[in-house]
Design goal:
- The structure holds 2 protein chains of 2 kinds.
- Chain A is an alpha/beta fold.
- In chain A, 29% of the residues lie in helices and 29% in strands.
- Chain A has helices at 18-28, 44-50, 70-84, 95-107, 208-222, 230-234, 265-271, 288-291, 300-314; strands spanning 3-8, 32-40, 56-61, 88-92, 111-116, 118-121, 124-129, 134-140, 145-149, 164-167, 177-184, 197-201, 225-228, 255-259, 276-281, 294-297.
- Chain A has a 7-stranded parallel beta sheet with strand order 5-9-4-1-2-3-10, sandwiched between helices. Chain A has a 5-stranded parallel beta sheet with strand order 13-12-14-15-16.
- In chain B, the strands form 2 sheets. Chain B has a 9-stranded mixed beta sheet, with helices on both faces. In chain B, strands 2-3 form a two-stranded antiparallel sheet.
- The chains are: A alpha/beta, B alpha/beta.
- At the A-B interface, helix 3, helix 4, strand 5, strand 7 and strand 8 of A face helix 3, helix 4, strand 7, strand 8 and strand 9 of B.
């Protein structure tokens, strides 16, 4: 029996998120038809954009879906999944995907695989466990399955479809959750999860000034996103939103530069998908050197300014 | 006010992992076992909320007799009593959510507090599954919790910023790292914990039908990356990145 996939779209005010297109790619590894689902308010343009990637897009606009709250979203996603006979329901393993999809699974009596890194067959997936220290192969035995996808492990689906777009009347049901507000962390830099270059700093930077003095100018020079280790986020030197790791963001840029970071498993879990990794650390025994392609042993406060100068000379 | 907190027994995050010859579990002999760090944050948050608003904190763990160590540790921090649902089976997230929902139904807490994920399987599912099973509001990845009347207001770490939700209690809250710093147990706390009530229940006595729906078939070490090169100077690094890797 061929599969029917339903991909739950994530978007910002103007764009479908790239992470959703990675989920489409994961779903396409299993033969079947691919449907998209767009929920919110004023989202017709998102549905139209999504239709370039899938064969059918269902969208609904409702006051109760204005904010991405798990309780009402899960009900509507499950309703649509049932109405189209979906066998596989997918979303990106973003904070939002992780928040709502287990509820969808429960509503549908479905088993779930979180944050998968590969699709083995119609019911078997690979996923990182133990902070990425091990890869597990998990088999789901239910007829309906819910899967969240690690976006950095799948390329983004091409825009080579011209799917139908259809509107439906959603019923989010009663909710015991009230959305109060959202405080956006604004940044002029590329988004951490999407950036092609990431510069991350750790305790070796000695304080928030170290980030200003070394990391920011280097990031400016390379048009990079800035990341950080958990230790410096916990210490309040930088926003937690910058955290790269098991408990933070997973990144996979073409170039990752770790400065003053020891390389705890927690951090490495978030950056090991990077194509080329550079470590700068004064401790030659730091574990980061075992995972980095290139290492420089020395004081970041000497090395980084020289690196910036040499990059400027190239530019 | 009553808060139910779950604590999972997991291998120490600093432990070196080796795969059991069966291929689908890790070797736990000789591995230090700890309470899931996110759950410790949940215990701490429960204690702080109870200190402020009054009431009791009940700790729930599911697993073998060994889990009593993690329950007693939470009691040493200040939790009032514990429940151990005893089983030697390894349950999947769906089954765990059914067990927790069952205990929730008996205990009728105002809040269920849990870690956002366990550091062994990293599934990040159970709190949300319990919330849906009980039709409760949820806030995952909590960064701050404030109680007022029958509402719990939670600031949570969402993508791109901080989201604030108000949940009508009872509700489910899962904890992120920055919510608090768990306290150390005091020596008197450890002594007192030995005498606190711990209710041991057999899983089979709960009357649940638990069919496993997720099977861990295989565990693998990720492929070893080729050892990197230590470079002599910045100039060499720049030329490697420009001429060899072509990433700048």
């Amino acid at each position: 029996m061929s599969a029917t996939h339903l991909i739950v779209a994530e978007y910002d005010s103007t764009h479908l998120k790239n992470a959703t297109l990675s989920a489409v790619t994961a779903a396409q590894k299993i033969e079947g038809t691919v449907h998209g689902l767009v929920l919110g308010k004023n989202v017709k343009h998102i549905a139209d954009a999504f239709a370039k990637h899938v064969s059918q897009v269902h969208y609904a606009e409702h006051d109760g879906l204005e904010h991405r709250v798990a309780q009402p979203y899960a009900k509507v996603i499950a309703d649509v999944a049932k109405s189209i006979g979906a066998t596989h329901i997918w979303a990106a393993a973003t904070a939002a995907g992780k928040d709502m999809m287990p509820r969808v699974a429960t509503r549908l009596d479905a088993a779930m695989a979180s944050d998968i890194s590969d699709v083995v067959d119609t019911k078997t997936y690979k996923r990182p466990m133990w902070a990425g220290g091990l890869t597990g192969t998990v088999a789901l035995s239910t007829s309906i399955q819910v899967i969240t996808v690690r976006p950095t492990e799948f390329v983004q689906a091409a825009a080579n479809a011209s799917g139908n777009v259809s509107n439906f009347a959603a019923d989010p049901g009663p909710s015991t959750t009230r959305f109060v507000g959202f405080e956006e962390v604004k940044s002029e830099r590329p988004e951490l999860a999407d950036a092609s270059v990431v510069i991350s700093g750790g305790r070796g930077l000695k304080g928030p000034e170290g980030f200003k003095q070394l990391i920011e100018p280097l990031a400016d020079q390379l048009n990079a996103a800035i990341g950080a280790s958990r230790a410096v986020c916990d210490a309040g030197w930088v926003p937690n939103d910058w955290q790269v790791g098991q408990t933070g963001k997973v990144v996979a840029p073409k170039l990752y530069i770790a400065i003053g970071i020891s390389g705890a498993i927690q951090h490495v879990a978030g950056m090991k998908g990077s194509k080329v990794t550079v470590a700068i650390n004064k401790d030659p025994e730091a574990p980061i050197f075992q995972v980095a392609d290139y290492g420089l042993v020395g004081d970041a406060f000497t090395i980084v300014p020289e690196l910036i100068e040499r990059l400027k000379a190239l530019a | 006010m009553k808060i139910l907190v779950t604590v999972k027994r997991v291998p120490d995050y600093a432990a070196k992992l080796t795969i059991d010859p069966s291929g689908n579990k890790i070797k736990t002999e000789g591995v230090n076992m700890i309470a899931n760090p996110f759950d410790e944050i949940a215990v701490e948050e429960a204690l702080r909320l109870i200190e402020k608003h009054g009431g009791e904190t009940c700790v729930l763990s599911i697993g073998t007799d060994d889990c009593t160590a993690q329950i007693r540790a939470a009691m040493a921090m200040g939790a009032d009593r514990g429940i151990l649902v005893k089983t030697t089976e390894s349950l999947d997230c769906v089954s765990i959510s059914k067990v927790i929902a069952k205990i929730f139904g008996e205990e009728k807490p105002d809040i269920l507090l849990m870690g956002k994920q366990a550091i062994d399987d990293d599934s990040h599912q159970v709190g949300q599954m319990v919330a849906e099973r009980l039709n409760l509001g949820q806030a995952t990845q909590a960064n701050k919790v404030v109680l007022e009347g029958e509402w719990a207001t939670v600031i949570r770490e969402a993508d791109g910023g901080l989201e604030t939700l108000s949940l009508k209690m009872p509700c489910v809250i899962t904890t992120d790292l920055r919510l608090n710093e768990p306290r150390y147990a005091s020596l008197p706390g450890i002594m007192k914990a030995k005498k606190k009530p711990l209710d041991e229940r057999e899983l089979s006595s709960l009357g649940l039908s638990l069919t496993p729906s997720v099977t861990l078939q295989k565990l693998e070490m990720p492929p070893n990356k080729q050892a990197g090169q230590i470079l002599p100077d910045v100039q060499t690094l720049v030329s490697k990145l420009r001429d060899v890797e072509k990433v700048i």
